Amino acid sequence: MSSSTPFSSPVFGGARCFVKVRGFLPALPALILLFCFFLFPVVRMLGFSVEAGTLDWYAKALGEGLYLEVFWNTFEIAMIVTAVCLLLGYPVGFLIATTTPGWATLGFIFVLLPLWTSVLVRTYAWMVLLGRNGVFNRWLIDIGLVSDPLPLLNNFSGVLIGMVHVLLPYMVLPIYGAVRRLDPALVSAAQGLGASSWRVFWRVYLPLTAPGIFAGATIVFVLSLGFFITPALLGGGKVMMLAVLIEQQIHQTLNWPFAAALSAVLLALTVGVYSLAQLFTRQEARS
Amino acid sequence: MASRSADLEVEGLVKRFGEVVALDGVSLDIASGELLTILGPSGSGKTTLLKVVAGFETPDAGAVKVDGIDITTMPPAKRDIGMVFQNYALFPHLTVARNVAFPLEMRNAPRAEIDKRVGEALNLVELKGFENRLPRQLSGGQQQRVALARAIVFNPRLLLLDEPFGALDRKLRETMQLEVRRLQRRLGLTTVFITHDQEEALVLSDRIAVMNRGAIQQVASTTEIYERPANDFVADFVGESNIFHGTVTETGSVTLESGRRLLITHSAPVGSRVGVLMRPERFGRGPNTFNGEIREAVYLGSSLKLRLACDDGLELIVRLPVTGPLPASGSRISTGIEPESIHVF
Q1: Cβ B106–A208 below 8 Å, yes or no?
Q2: Helix or strand or coil: residue B340?
Q3: Same domain assignment for residues A19 and A149
Q4: How do residues A57-113 score in pLDDT, each as one tens digit?
Q5: Which one in A58, A161, B81, B235 has a CA-CA gap of 20 to 30 Å to A220?
Q6: What letter does residue A36 receive in the DSSP assignment?
Q7: CB pairs under 8 A between A and B
Q8: pTM listed for this prediction
Q9: How many domains does chain A have?
Q10: Residues 30-69 of B with CB under 8 A from A
Q11: Alpha-helical segments (H) within chain B
Q12: Residues A151 and A204 in one domain
């Protein structure tokens, strides 16, 4: 709030404070809930990692090649998923934003329907589709495109397909919003001034929808970093992402302090990426 | 800047949007270097006409020709037409200089030439020194100038302006009108200007085309449009007017529906039904006299506007010079008009 607004003057200071408290009250139940069932468990869990009074578990997480590789792997997959989502999502968001209302509604249904379906259900569906004797492979063999089944499950391809499918709507929606916000007169102006369709896209659409692209990419990337169900089931334990590693440490090796340290690092990475994105967005908005 | 201004011809343009007929057989000829204003109320089809000329809409029938060459189906990017949009449509992410450079960059002009011509165009609209500002850091009038510079920098064959001054305040609007007029004359640029503001049309144009319901009502010089409108719509839309209908009962005389006889100079054949237009500022003295009661008197500074209820039932709007004290509403006056000041159509 700028200092020129009346409410920030000392005279109204009391009133403003009162308004703040009143606004706070209705949110209290949710805040208590979050505190008890989210913040407290997170802090408690992080506490495990330093229970010994040393940072040894962090040293292990960040110092051993094996685990560093998992971090790198997680980042790499998140980046590839983000890139694929962007390449697939931009045309879809663009189409829905620019087509007639009827088609747009249909497009929305296609984008949102998966979002309303449980991730677990969708992941199992992909297992049925992608397996050695799955629908895809049988079909590919039937039409004679391949002679041996393609390895689509329990490897990187499966994880990629599954994650892109789950995360695509998070890319499509902000891009849709950004294209909708763009003044159609700007497109007409660019065409009238001599821009080919290709140049209208590069010089007008792309720069002016960049905030949408950026928002979508940030959400997809951040969600990818901590993704568990899909990589766990479609990767078949062969694609090691951070969340899968953490789960292993908890359930199989029962090494809770190390799992806690890994979680802390994942949390820090996620917050880091998110803050960087925020910083960038704010600078963008200012310039 | 060398001009390569062209003439524009539109023939029998028809454009329907579902049930709505936006253009109903519009034909126009605009000479090279001319400024033609298309004047009409909102929904009259004038913006559709401009869009068809610019290439943003394809007509259902008819043709658009520039220098005799049919461009009806040519994509807008190939037409070489400069356009200023209603809300300027400046690229918000580009600086003033980059906005103005845009059409030159699209034509792959060399950097040095781009810089030179952007400089010239910004000079022309008096925006030197604003090169590195973004559109949102400019006032409405300045944005307008940038849009104008961007529309003329690539030496277009035509300039189209779609209600460009709608968002400006009155003072600024008048300044910009004169500026556009000056620029247009200097560049000799064939220009089509769209407005719903009749005063603006009178200030700017060589000729005015009045549009209503998708059709051209009259195309004529500004004085012609004002003094000798072709029909009720034009007479009513352009300026204040007293319009009546009657029959020519003998040469030089019209009998109005109210029974009153008016002396006219028009030589319409006896027995024909005609419209009669009397502009409020033409009243004063003359053989056609009107006696009546003042219903309303408005002081306008330079003149006095009266609503007069005549004894025979006619209602007139009369503008008189301010002479003595303001006449009270309810008082009686007498005024007249010369036969040559009455337009018959």
Answers
A1: no
A2: helix
A3: no
A4: 898 888 888 899 999 999 999 999 999 999 999 999 999 999 999 999 999 998 888
A5: A58
A6: I
A7: 62
A8: 0.80
A9: 2
A10: 54-56
A11: 46-54, 96-106, 111-124, 140-152, 170-187, 198-204, 222-227, 232-237
A12: yes
